[in-house]
Structures are given as structure tokens and as C-alpha cells.
Amino acid sequence: MLLVGTLAIDVAKRCYLRVVFCDVKLAGMRVKLVELKDEMDDCVQRQDFQRAAELKLNITELEVSRQSLLSETEPKTTEVRTEKVSVIVTGVVSLVAAVVILMLVQS
């Protein structure tokens, strides 16, 4: 039981660190997007449309990366069927009980 608790704590720590890392990375992406958009607006004001187009491509690539990271960090739900586990455990307990009874009868 202690091993299961230790493994659960380890998994929780890893999940927490991954979420924190992703949050920091997402914040950095948001800052970079704001900077690129501001620079693109300045380029449009100066009529440097070639540079504005390059910045627009960079913004699009960064937004795609951001969406990909967001989809990775969304909680994933999985259904766990406990009926089978309890049937297996019950079967194992019954088997152990039968073996113990046979050992007692034979001795």
C-alpha cells in the first residue's frame, strides 16, 4: 500500500510540474504574441508591408504552437471499469481460500 501511495505522489508531482511548465511556456507565448502584434502594427503604420507580412506568418505559427500546447494540457478523462477488478480480486481471494482449505484438509 505504501508503494501505491508513493507512486501516486510521484505521479501527482510530475503532473503538477508539467502544468506549471506549460503555464510558464504559455505566458511566454502570450507575451511574444503581443510583442509581434505591436511590431506588426508599427510596420503597417510605416507602410512596411513586407515586414508586416513576415510578422503575420510568425504570429500564425506561434498561435498554432500555443493551441497545440493548450490541447496537450487539457485534462484527459478516462473511464475505469472497476467491476472487472473486483471480480478478479474476488476470484483470487476464493482461489486462495480454496488452497488454504485443501492444505488444512490434507494435513
What is the topological layout?
Layout: H1 2-45, H2 49-73, H3 82-106
Please bin the fraction of helical residues: over 70%
Return the average pLDDT rounded to an integer.
Answer: 79
Taking all Cα atoms into account, the compactness measure Rg is 28 Å
Topology as a string of helices (H) and strands (E): HHH
Q: Total number of β-strand segments?
A: 0
Largest sheet: none
Content of β-strand: under 5%
Helix count, per DSSP? Answer: 3
Structural class of the secondary elements? mainly alpha
Which ranges are low-confidence, i.e. pLDDT below 50, for 5 or more consecutive residues?
A: none
Task: Tell me, briefly, the overall form.
Answer: rod-shaped
Distance between the termini: 33 Å
Count of domains: 1
List keywords for this structure.
3 helices, mainly alpha, 107 residues
In short:
With 107 residues, this protein is mainly α. The protein has three helices and no strands. It starts with a helix and ends with a helix.
What does this structure look like?
- It is a single chain.
- By secondary structure, the protein is mainly alpha-helical.
- The protein has one domain.
- It contains three helices and no strands.
- It has helices spanning 2-45, 49-73, 82-106.
- Helix 1 (2-45) runs antiparallel to helix 2 (49-73).
- It starts with a helix and ends with a helix.
